[in-house]
Amino acid sequence: MNIDKLFKVPALPSSSNKRKFGDLPSAEELKRFKPAEEEPTASNLAKGKQRATVEDYDEDEENQDPYGTGLIEDFGDEDDEGRMFGGGLNEDQRTILDMFDRAGDDEDDEPTVVTLPTLRKQLVQFERTVKKNQEMRVKFPDEPEKFIDSESNLDTALHALTATLPQNPKLFYPELVKQGTVKVLSELLSHENADIALDVVQVLQELTEEDVEAPDDDGDDDDGEEDDAQVTSGMRVLIDALLEVDIFQLLIENLGRLNEKEDTDRQGVFQTLGIFENLLSFNPTLAETLVNSTTALKWLLSRITVEEYDSNKQYASEVLAILLQQSRSNRLKLGELEGIDALLRVLARYRKSDPSDPEEEEFMENSFDALCSALAEPELKQLFLEAEGVELMVICMKEKKLARARSIKVLDHALSGSEGSDNCERFVENLGLKTLFAAFMGKGSKKSHVSAEDNEHILGILVSLFTNLASESQSRMRLLAKFIEGDYEKVDRLLELREEAEGRLTVVEREIEKEKQSTYNAGQEVDVEDEVMFYLRRLEGGLFTLQNIDYILAWLIMEDDGAKDQAKLLLSRKDQTFQEIVDVLQEQSDNVGDLTPDGKLDPKAESQKIILDALMNYLKGSM
């Protein structure tokens, strides 16, 4: 509880920013008060932890304490001066002392096990605590000292939920929904005291964590999968209930009243982002719900463009990247909100300097990933061009900082497809070829810095350039000239990478053959689905790289006689001919695109197939 906010007192020094309850009265102050009669202290009432074994519940037992904290008070017999009896300590202070007392005396006791009846009592008492706080605030709106105790009790009750509910999600989460507590929690997100709203955020963040597990009652792992399924079912019930109360909108509205200069508010923002991540991890389709029903995307873009760096900025970039991964509508919405320009402004900071620590490096990675996801949409490639994204990425490539490899990846996405043709032209115009081939040849840096992933993206860019640059154009001539210079050293490099890819692919194909043989030995057949999976494994194991290399080689062989002779010479040293290239391209052609319902290829796949067939025909005639 932030008592300072309630009483409007000046802020404490920075070394004491953490919100605390009031200090305990001194011994001299206590001497001024003499209790009318001795009351039992919270410590005496709650000595020793008890194992919860309640099986029946009588709703009339209002003085029962489901939290085990000693905080339940009899509101009906409230005394105006009651806080001064019992030693001058209020209930919360007695609870704190009681916690220390029990911690020292009961270290060897068994942990409390909460049963379903106990949980029901706790939820009922929680709602009463909420109601009491509402009543006191309505009754004394301008007298915080009159409702501070009820607010303190509410704060304690909320924290108690985080200790109880995650113990048994499969059983407790459905009960939480059944009792209507989810709706109560959602309403508390709009509580006048922001600290109470932040308590709710903490509760929701902990309840939706991925690592909540079913309790292991007997240590038997045989039923582990069944328990996990039940936990998932309980989580689904909870999330469905949260969606019914429009939890996304409530959380976004709550973000609007938080001041991240305050430690607790900053933590609240972090936990809110955690809730978003938890829900999206459980159900990725909620990404569109979050973007379509709230201003979350706008808020995230605003948050990542803040100059100062902190953990919340990093977390915002992570959630943004998640939202853009699998949703075309979210990516288009990003374009409408000028998100491409925002991401480029963020990344421009890393063209000449590296992130200061691993966390900021992750922020940079997330921002690059978000941009790559956005460039999957043809409409956004044009926005990238207009925002001078190609120019920025070329600069990042030249500077050889950490952003270099990521900029190559972005360009691979931006230049791909027919919609990337203008970006290909812009890339050549801005002298991108020189920087690209320097990275391709490992010049200007240690070769180890050019990773296999970097090579994949460099090859992807070259594939796009050969596909999109117009025949006989100046840009295409400049591309071919790069392969001719240096005594065809770049053709040599292509054949070197080809040999490496073949080696990796051979290992994978041997593994697949062993699996197929095991299947046949078991009297089973390899079906179509198995063949598809085997093909995907081969692509990942080196075939995709081999296809890109042979596509580039085929264009070079067809367009330059010197490149053709060099390639033929190097292949012959490995007892290979152009037929090996034809075989690779033929398999690629056979697997291009998916058939439409009427049995035809889509236009893009059809165009690619035509190009592959033309290249293969030329190679066959050149053997």
Automatic annotation (TrEMBL):
Coiled-coil zones: 491-518
Alphabetical keyword list: Coiled coil, Nucleus, Phosphoprotein, Repeat
Protease keyword on record: no
Sequence ranges of Acidic residues compositional bias: 55-64, 211-229
Presence of the UniProt keyword Coiled coil in the record: yes
Region (Disordered): 1-77, 211-230
SMART domains per the UniProt record, alphabetical: DUF1716
Ranges annotated as biased composition (Basic and acidic residues): 28-37
PANTHER family for the chain: BETA-CATENIN-LIKE PROTEIN 1, BETA-CATENIN-LIKE PROTEIN 1 NUCLEAR ASSOCIATED PROTEIN
Protein name per Swiss-Prot or TrEMBL: Uncharacterized conserved protein
Source species: Phaffia rhodozyma
